[in-house]
Structure formats: C-alpha cells, structure tokens
Amino acid sequence: MTDGPLVPRPGDPRLRADETSCLIATMPNLWDNIFFWRRATVVLAALSLALLVAAIVRHDPPEFSSMPIIAVVRDGEQRPIWAVRLARAAHQIAADSLHVQPVPAGHVYQLWLSASDAAAPHQLGLLPQSGRKRIAVSPEIARLLTGAGELAVTLEPQGGSLGPAPSGPTVFRGTLESSG
After folding, report:
1. Which of 28, 41, 54, 94 lies 20 to 30 Å (CA to CA) from residue 13?
2. What does the pLDDT look like over 23-37, one tens digit per residue?
3. Any idea where the domains of the chain sit in the sequence?
C-alpha cells in the first residue's frame, strides 16, 4: 500500500512515448523558478560590484618622461649610465639606461638606496642593460627617495642578492637630488 498515487518518472519503461513527453512538459521549468533568478541576481550583482571596484582602483601607469630625474648613476669616470625617475604617487621608479653597460655572464646589476637616516641599504630592484625598467617601491621608499641619500649599483649573481644587503661589489653610484 502506498500513501498516495504512484508518480511515474520520465524514462519509466511502463510509460508510452506520448505520456513521457507530457511528463517532461509538466516538470518545473528552470526559467520559471523564482529561486533560480534570486540566486542569479545575487551572483551577477556581486560580479558587477567586483568589476566596478577593479575599474575604480585601476590606475594608468605614470608617464615617466615628464617626471623629474631624481638621480643619475655614473661609472668611475663619471659617465652617466642610468637616470632614475620617481612617480611618488604611483610608488614606482623608472631606471632609464643611458649607456649600455655589459654585465659579466651569470650576473646582474642591482640598485640599492642608502638613505641618510637608514642604517642598512634598501634593495630597489634589478636594472636593465638597455631601455627603461619600471620598479615598484613601497610608500616609505618613495618618501626616502625624495630626501638626501645615495643610489648604489652592485654586481650580483643572477636573480639578485638573496639577502637584505648587497652581496657583490659596488660598481656604480649616484647621489639623490632632493625633489621634495
């Protein structure tokens, strides 16, 4: 005995073809389900909000050509090798290669900041052999770059210094020009 009428399911071998199509037609339609549309609305609203936040937060990269040069790194004969520009609001610097400087095999040039009020040098990044390289810096480093100090370039193993301090010799130097 059953409590109610037996409801056949589509595909039941006891049903004829016309009965199966009738059952399929009477099944709840996903597009008519209010819970489906509520969930879809929540998902699409969250996605729209995420895209809006991403569009607001996105900043155009700074145009470094119009930024003042804060330091020129020179070799031992005082020839300019790299010009360094600061986009303080974007927390980025650009190192422009002025004179192609060959790097010994298995090594790279790494830029360091020695600020007057800091005990240890701050690692800034690896320098390009030619062209321009953008380097992200922290807000604190951007502030230090506007004051008195010196930039040093060391010869480091491929990938740069593994520690917080230079591991190779200083090969080039440049003095920061206070840009406020």
Report:
1. 28
2. 555 555 777 888 888
3. 17-57, 64-175
